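Input (structure):
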């Protein structure tokens, strides 16, 4: 759960000014993977049915069954980081161009998520690495403030405060013409497919 967040954090605040070498950065990322004890495993905790290939321009459904055949929700989604992540997914208006206003309970959910992921070894190590590079405060509370600003503070795209990093990357947005942008979370994909809001057409690549 925390690994995706770490990769995105490094892409946003570290890549432009990273003093560490490529080898050092790669080693750091590999070390985060090794301590990501919350991850779940393909073939055991979830099963994918990839079916047929497709193309980005195709509109035909070349895969009749869902992509996710099984997810062990009792194992994954009861873990604190997963549960607090899922609680954030219904806090957003999917259509771009609509101003996002957080209710007080939604702000509380954001801070609960940040508090929870900062308990993980992945985020502790990522924080230490960014701090050592001079790219984040060494103070945990200040670092969480920085994460909030980067990921959850709304900014203007098509309208005033109509999007945020978290909404785009993890929740996904609709351009109101049934075109999806962002939407990079497997959890959100699974939940939308399970709810019947998403129809898997196939995969691109090998």
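Output (sequence):
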């Amino acid at each position: 759960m925390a690994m995706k967040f770490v990769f995105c954090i490094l892409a946003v605040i570290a890549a432009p000014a990273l003093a560490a070498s490529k080898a050092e950065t790669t080693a750091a990322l590999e070390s985060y993977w090794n301590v990501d004890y919350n991850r779940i495993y393909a073939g055991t905790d979830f099963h994918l049915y990839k079916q047929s290939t497709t193309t980005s321009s195709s509109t035909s459904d070349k895969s009749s069954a869902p992509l996710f055949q099984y997810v062990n929700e009792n194992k994954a989604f009861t873990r604190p980081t997963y549960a607090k992540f899922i609680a954030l997914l219904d806090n957003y208006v999917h259509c771009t161009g609509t101003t996002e206003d957080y209710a007080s309970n939604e702000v509380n959910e954001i801070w609960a998520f940040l508090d929870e992921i900062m308990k993980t070894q992945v985020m502790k190590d990522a924080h230490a690495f960014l701090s050592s590079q001079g790219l984040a405060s060494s103070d945990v509370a200040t670092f969480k403030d920085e994460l909030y600003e980067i990921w959850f503070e709304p900014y203007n795209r098509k309208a005033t405060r109509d999007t945020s990093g978290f909404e785009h990357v993890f929740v996904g947005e609709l351009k109101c013409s049934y075109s999806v942008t962002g939407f990079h979370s497997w959890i959100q994909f699974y939940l939308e497919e399970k709810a019947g809001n998403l129809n898997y057409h196939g995969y691109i690549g090998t």
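Notes: The chain has a mean pLDDT of 89. The beta strands are 46-48, 68-71, 173-174, 180-181.
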